[in-house]
Amino acid sequence: MTERMTQLGFQQVNVKELDFNVFGTIGDRWMLLAAGDEKSSNTMTASWGQMGILWNKPVATAYIRKTRYTKEFVDAGELFTISVYPGEFKKALSFCGSKSGRDFEKNGKAEAAGLTALYLDGTTAYEEAELILVCRKLYSYDMNAEGFFDKSIVTAQYADDNWHTAYISEIVAAYKRT
Question: N or C of the chain: less Cβ packing under 10 Å?
Answer without folding.
Answer: C
